[in-house]
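Treating backbone geometry as a discrete language has practical consequences that deserve illustration. The amino acid sequence and the backbone structure tokens for this protein are reproduced below.
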Amino acid sequence: MLAGICAALNCGVLPFWKYSFEGTTAEPMLLYGFGNFGRGALLGTLFWLFNATLALSVALPAITSVLFSNRKLQTTLVTISMGVAVSAIVFAVFSALLLQSKLGSSSVTNMPQLGLLLLVLSPIFLLLSRGGILKDEEIATAYKRL
């Protein structure tokens, strides 16, 4: 569930990237999941893919947590969730860097924010949960032998 919560916090709560405009009075631009980030085919596609993988990164751990009676399916879903979470990170970084290149000014500085850190923690939590599921399966198999 922690992996899903970390991903869910990127849906408009915590920004994953920040652009500051030096030498101007403009407000910093913050990127959130499910936000509007301008036009362009490649940039729009990357943000769409980021939002889709972010939604899956929230939904799959929630679904997986209630499948405790079927550990094999649960292990498979956790493995898929890890791949989706890593894909969300890749799409987030690529879309943020592409937006930086579109802004094109040397006076624009960009910096990852807490949302990206939480996205990085999500696959780590999923890896830990996969280890726990496999340990539970091992204990259940040993109990059946008795």
